[in-house]
Design a protein that fits this description.
Elements (H helix, E strand, L loop, with lengths): L5 H5 L29 H32 L4 H7 L3 E6 L2 E6 H26 L6 H26 L16 H11 L5 H25 L6 H20 L4 H18 L5 H9 L8 H16 L6 H17 L3 H25 L12 H27 L11 H10 L4 H11 L2 H29 L3 H7 L1
Antiparallel strand pairs: 1-2
Length: 468
């Protein structure tokens, strides 16, 4: 076939053009304009994640600061009482009446946990946690970074009424951590960046288990069985090949409602559905290519004028294009902006507002949270990492020494979102306010010390590597 001129390739495709030879059309044809490389499956999702979360961290910080300012201003009473405004749903004899704060914490945060479940699934299937050799260090560091902070907290609060808050200092806030990494830019080696992000993902898995096991009481068996039945229905729909998102959305709502009534925290429905989301596309490359070629050949013919045939052909192309994107990737790209720029800032506005008084900074609960996050996190991460490396189970990232590992451990002490979430499950009243103060102080100290250590130990590391 003769080579087309550039202007012929760029012109609009429409009926009557005879530029294609479609006589050799077969189902096996699968043309690809952009060849895929193996590294793209890891690098591209990570780039998108960093881009969205770094900006989301700034929005989250602004929302938290706004909540603190309003809670300590003349507008404190109307601001705090607003989140206690009740809104409900009634269907026949069934009613669900919750405060706005409760709707955010149990409802909207289920979407946040759905995104967390998607991230965990991606890391387990195609990311760093897929390979046990790469996952060993961040998983070991995450375990140390959960056990030691909880031990620090219990050491100070074991006999106190706030002992139930042992899970508060265990979780890392990945949005703020990524925001700090974005500020440091070229100073952070890729190996350390990937280790810290993988650590945060493993940390999220631990936090999910803590919420499910440590903060579940008075389980209602019938409601729990209904929730499990709903999950079973979803698995059956997967097997049958059902692709209608409205059906799955309805199932998720029903499972969420059943979990809410069962006594298990309803946000875990989001995690379950995130982990169930397929990582493979329903339409393969070959089928997509064949559909695209048939569509092009249809444009060549005379059928374009017949509206029904045109609709069916282009609808088939639309469905093939959409279903060629793995559901996990599609939902992650769709929901990340909503999670980072809407849900988490709303959560911060509804939960970070606390009236600050000098005596709260010396409250035993605040001190225990600060010790857990600011001291326990880096100590646990550094100690567990050292043991894993010395035992031969794991290895340090290329070009990274122990100083940056300690700095990364302090950054992991930024525990804002998950820590606030768990504190709301574990404590109430003045104890909850003291815990919030401890979370804010510990997160600020951890960010400052972590950045200072990384700047000290990594003076333009990646720039030096680039020059070499």
């Amino acid at each position: 076939m003769d080579e087309k001129k550039p202007n012929e390739e760029a012109r609009e495709i429409g009926p009557g053009h005879q530029d294609w030879d479609c006589t050799d059309l077969t189902a096996a044809d699968s043309p690809s304009a952009f060849p895929d490389e193996p590294i793209d499956s890891v690098v591209d999702p990570l780039k998108r994640f960093l881009h969205i979360e770094s900006a989301g961290g700034i929005v989250l910080l602004v929302a938290a600061a706004t909540a603190l300012v309003l809670a300590n201003s003349p507008l404190a009473d109307p601001f705090l009482s607003f989140w206690q405004t009740h809104a409900g749903v009634r269907i026949g004899k069934f009613s669900l009446d919750l405060s706005l704060q409760h709707w955010i914490n149990d409802g909207l945060m289920a979407v946040f946990f759905f995104v967390v479940g998607l991230e965990v699934k991606r890391e387990l299937v195609v990311g760093e946690l897929r390979d046990i050799r790469n996952a060993a260090l961040p998983v070991a560091a995450a375990l140390g970074g959960m056990v030691v902070p909880a031990a620090f907290y219990l050491l100070l609060q074991s006999e106190a009424p706030a002992a139930q808050g042992w899970g508060i200092p265990m979780a890392t806030d990945i949005a703020f951590v990524v925001g700090v990494l974005a500020l440091l830019k070229d100073r952070i080696p890729n190996g350390l960046r990937i280790m810290l992000l993988s650590l945060a993902i493993a940390d999220d898995i631990g936090a999910i288990l803590v919420i499910a096991v440590g903060y579940t009481q008075n389980i209602q068996g019938v409601a729990l069985l209904l929730a499990m039945g709903g999950v079973g229905v979803v698995l059956a729909l997967f097997r049958l090949g059902v692709r209608n998102m409205a059906v799955y959305t309805l199932c998720m709502l029903l499972v969420w409602l059943a979990l809410h009534e069962s006594g298990i925290h309803a946000t875990l429905a989001g995690v379950v559905f995130g982990l169930l989301t397929p990582t493979r596309s329903w339409v393969g490359q070959g089928r997509l290519g064949a559909t695209a070629r048939r569509t092009l050949c249809f444009l060549k013919g005379e059928g374009w004028a017949r509206s029904q045939e045109r609709y069916e052909t282009l609808r088939a192309m639309e469905l093939a294009a959409r279903e060629s994107i793995p559901p996990l990737q599609r939902f992650e790209n769709l929901l990340h902006p909503w999670s980072g720029f809407v849900i988490m800032p709303l959560f911060a506005l509804a939960n970070a507002g606390v009236a600050i008084s000098p005596e709260q900074f010396s409250h035993p609960v605040a001190a225990a949270v600060v010790c857990g996050l600011f001291l326990g996190k880096p100590a646990g991460i550094a100690a567990a990492s050292w043991l894993a490396v010395k035992s031969g189970v794991a290895r340090l990232p290329t070009g990274v020494a122990w100083g940056p590992i300690v700095g990364a451990g302090f950054l992991a002490g930024i525990g804002f979102t998950m820590a606030l979430f768990i504190s709301g499950l574990a404590l109430a009243g003045p104890l909850l306010d003291a815990a919030k103060i401890g979370i804010l102080v510990a997160s600020l100290l951890s960010a400052l010390v972590g950045v200072a250590l990384l700047v000290c130990f990594l003076p333009g590391t990646r720039k030096k590597q680039a020059k070499k």
